[in-house]
Write a structure and sequence with these properties.
- The complex is a heterotrimer of chains A (413), B (71) and C (354).
- By secondary structure, chain B is an alpha+beta fold.
- Chain B has two helices and four strands; from the N terminus they run E-H-E-E-H-E.
- Chain B has a single domain, classed as Alpha-Beta Plaits.
- In chain B, strand 2 and strand 3 form a beta hairpin.
- Chain B is globular.
- Chain C has ten helices and eight strands.
- Chain C has an eight-stranded antiparallel beta barrel.
- The chains are: A alpha/beta (413), B alpha+beta (71), C alpha+beta (354).
- Chains in contact: A-B, B-C.
């Protein structure tokens, strides 16, 4: 995967040419020292004024998240979420591999902002070494919160907030029922704020350069830049830094998209499909993508080439998502398996007459019935495929030739 | 309002028998809960369903700010 | 209330409790296997399982109270919850206390389920499968009518229901196959073991004594006598003197007293004589006898002859005793002084058995 630069480059600015992680010295040279002269309240104000939102998928206002754990009678814990369970996304891994010091900076500042004395940086095995090395470079300073790095399993649901907290508490990496939410009771029973590693990296820059600088890119409601992973039918797949609200078409051009893609999966496997025509006018912001029932999500975009079958691809993704279910909730376990089976029936053109009515009913029933949003996401993905690939669906229903000819192109783990 | 903890729920189905006004079962026996607030006449049935659930998966939560009576 | 009526009541309440608990086990299995029918929705199965348990507890309490109130056997309320503490058939009665304790624990944890959490409640509830056979063995071991035909039929029917319920439960279980096999084996082995014990124990004569009934209550000779018995006793009529003590207990809950006469005979026949009678005291100092037991024999085998009082007039007592080879009639003529010392004459008249 290559890492390239796009219009404004902030997070990916100081990267080394040889691809090695930025050292602490280089990091301090590029970005300056940590603004520790700022008091916690000042930090929080800066973050609030910057309008920074989560870069992990939910896009929740970061300042609100920090407020939810401040001022409680137990000291909060900061968790940096580098689990990146979404297979189509690689931006967190890239950030941790190339600029881990930014993430550590962000975590330290977030801890300072909420009065936390414990920080956990959670990553998968692949990127753990980078974090460990970055922490080792810093050594231990008096007064600094204790930072430990934790390795989490590489499953789809691991990055879910409650699953991460449960794992750090010694349990399985599976979502838990809420209430209580992590900001009420999380790691070790303390109020816990879970922030995506990219959010923390952005936070580190906001603290240094201020809200006005941050807002100089992006839109009013979604300011700043964001890392986006683009893969599939493009010449230069990889992680790009884009301005929020910029046209998707510009990113596609940058990544060498040949314009021949028939559809795009926006938000990774937890996202939804949009058609090529829609993509040509779409902007990279939740506000704009909502027109097509989509959102940035995990900021992963997969381009589907013209010669592929959207239904077949979706069938494989649906089966993957069914297998990645935590397996705790009946509606998810049964529902996703049934949906995957329906799609497979459509693709394999088995003897059974596919019942799209039943499929749609099951999709409608999947929402809000699990402990986490996994079934909701899977259902939304499949529903979008029925809309975007309606012509293909028709071909399969009438047993005409499948565009993809039985081959699939999207890579699954 | 009634809420089910889907992790604990094991599709026994007593809740749907006791409060059909708010709970019906999907094709696999799992509850689909209507989260409309429970009016006072329905409350005893809701409480009984909460007590009778074999897995203790059903809860009756206070609806904040909304009147208990559904109009 | 007469002792007879209380005894019937105790047995009756016990049997009803067993029937109710059998139904509870069956309903429990039905609940776990998610059985339902048009007339029996799941919440009815669950509710009945709970309510019949409470009803069974009521009957058990009545069973305990009638046993304690009927002072025939020396059983107190504490014996009902502290196992193996009663002097009456301590093991078999104690099992009843064990079953009762288990049931109380099961009920309490079920009523407080929301507080102790599902997992802890579930772990404890498995004890239900232990409490039923324990209650059954208690009934067969303690009951004085364990040989009655109708009771055997009822017991068999209950065992069949429970075994069926357990096998049904196991068949619907999602546990590992090893656990399921073990449960099936246990479901068949335990009743067979109990059946074997029953046939070798309560079904045979002499169980009452083997079970630990206090000697005073062995009204009929229930002890199998050792073959080498009474070599020193005469086979002809004999006379002798008696020296011993008379002790009278205080009134029990029914106003009855127990009188103990124990001592030795000398003269033609030397032996240890022991007499116990239960009765209602009269104003003139005597008693109206309601039950009795007696034994006589040489020091080595003091119960060579066992029997009861067949005649009582003032301080003249006529005993009818059975030995292994013959019968013995003893006529005692006693003088009892104020301190309880008894002296007198004894006449013995052996007769053939039959």
């Amino acid at each position: 995967m290559t890492v390239a630069e796009s219009a404004p480059s902030r997070l990916l600015d100081g990267l080394r040419a040889d691809g090695a992680p930025v050292s602490l010295v280089e990091h301090l040279e590029r970005y300056g020292p940590l603004p520790l002269e700022l008091r916690p309240e000042e930090l929080r104000v800066r973050i609030a004024e910057s309008g920074l939102t989560g870069r992990g998928g939910a896009a929740f206002p970061t300042a609100a998240k920090l407020e939810s754990v401040t001022g409680r009678h137990t000291r909060p814990v900061v968790v940096a979420n580098g689990a990146e369970g979404e297979p189509a996304s690689g931006k967190d891994k890239v950030l941790l591999a190339y600029a881990p010091q930014l993430v550590v900076d962000g975590a330290l500042l977030a801890a300072r902002a909420v009065g936390a004395k414990r920080i956990v940086i959670a990553t998968t095995a692949a990127t753990h070494a980078f974090v460990a090395r970055a922490l080792a470079e810093r050594g231990r300073e008096a007064g600094r919160p204790a930072v430990r790095s934790a390795v989490v399993p590489d499953r789809f649901v691991t990055g879910e907030e409650t699953a991460l907290v449960q794992f750090l508490n010694g349990g399985p990496a599976l979502p838990t029922f809420t209430p209580p939410r992590p900001y009420e009771r999380g790691v070790g029973g303390a109020p816990t704020v879970v922030l995506n590693v990219e959010t923390l990296a952005q936070l580190a820059l906001v603290a240094r350069f201020g809200p006005a600088w941050f807002r100089s890119a992006g839109t009013r409601d979604e300011p700043g830049t964001a890392l986006v992973t683009i893969s599939g039918a493009v010449r230069d797949p990889g992680v790009y830094e884009v301005e929020l609200g910029s046209p998707l078409a510009r990113l596609l051009q940058e990544a060498g998209g040949d314009g021949g893609a028939q559809a795009y999966l926006v938000g990774g496997f937890f996202g939804t499909w949009i058609g090529a025509a829609e993509a040509s006018s779409a902007l990279l912001s939740n506000a704009d993508l909502a027109r097509f029932g989509a959102s940035l999500g995990a900021r992963a975009i997969v381009a589907l080439p013209a010669g592929a079958c959207g239904i077949a691809e979706t069938a494989r993704i649906a089966r993957y998502l069914a297998e990645q279910s935590a397996g705790q909730c009946g509606p998810c376990v049964h529902g996703l398996a049934a949906v995957a089976e329906s799609l497979e029936d459509l693709v394999l053109r088995s003897r059974r007459t596919p019942d799209t009515g039943l499929l749609r009913r099951r999709l409608a029933q999947a929402a809000n019935r699990g402990a986490c949003r996994h079934p909701d996401g899977a259902a939304a993905l499949v529903a979008s495929s029925l809309r975007v690939f309606s012509a293909e669906l028709d071909r399969h229903l009438h047993r005409r030739r499948c565009t993809g000819n039985g081959r699939t192109v999207i890579q699954l783990p | 309002m009634l809420r089910v903890n889907p992790i604990l729920c094991d599709a026994h189905g007593l809740c749907a028998e006791l409060v059909p006004e708010r709970i019906e079962l999907d094709e696999w026996g799992f509850p689909i809960v209507d989260e409309t607030p429970v009016p006072p006449p329905l409350e005893p049935h809701a409480r009984r369903a909460v007590a009778d659930c074999p897995m203790l998966a059903l809860r009756l939560d206070r609806v904040r700010g909304l009147p208990q009576q559904a109009r | 209330m007469s002792s007879q009526a209380l005894w019937f009541a105790t047995r009756g309440f016990g049997v009803v409790a067993l029937l109710l608990l059998t139904a509870v086990v069956v309903l429990g299995a039905a609940g776990a296997t998610r059985w339902r029918s048009r007339r029996w929705p799941r919440f009815v199965v669950a509710g009945l399982h709970r309510n019949l348990t409470l009803l069974a507890l009521v009957f058990i309490v009545l069973h305990v109270v009638t046993t304690v109130v009927d002072g025939y056997a020396p059983i107190s309320l504490l014996n009902a919850v502290f196992p193996f503490t009663s002097p009456y058939r301590p093991i078999w009665l104690g099992l009843g206390a064990v079953a009762f304790d288990l049931l109380l624990a099961l009920t309490a944890t079920s009523l407080l389920r929301a507080r102790i959490g599902y997992r802890r409640w579930r772990a404890l509830h498995w004890l239900a499968y232990a409490s039923w056979p324990v209650a059954l063995v208690h009934g067969l071991g303690t009951g004085t009518d364990a040989r009655l035909a109708w009771l055997q039929v009822v017991t068999l029917a209950c065992v069949a229901c429970v075994v069926g319920a357990v096998l049904w439960r196991v068949s619907g279980s999602r546990a590992t196959s090893g656990l399921r096999r073990a449960s099936t084996v246990a479901a068949l082995a335990v009743p067979l073991a109990i059946g074997g014990w029953y046939l070798g124990g309560p079904a045979r004569h002499g169980w009452a004594a083997r079970a630990g009934t206090p000697r005073s209550l062995l009204v009929r000779p229930a002890v199998t006598l050792p073959a080498a018995a009474a070599p020193a006793l005469p086979t002809n009529a004999f006379t002798g003197t008696f020296t011993g003590r008379v002790e009278e207990s205080s009134r029990d809950a029914n106003g009855r007293v127990l009188v103990n006469i124990s001592g030795r005979t000398s003269g033609d026949s030397r032996g240890v004589l022991w007499i116990r009678l239960q009765g209602e005291p009269l104003e003139d100092g005597g008693v109206t006898m309601t039950a009795s037991g007696a034994s006589y024999g040489p020091s080595s085998t003091p119960d060579a002859y066992v029997g009861k009082i067949v005649g009582l007039q003032g301080t003249r007592i006529l005993l009818s005793l059975n030995g292994s080879t013959n019968r013995l009639s003893l006529l005692l003529d006693l003088n009892v002084d104020s301190s309880g010392v008894a002296t007198g004459t004894v006449q013995g008249n052996p007769a053939s058995l039959g």
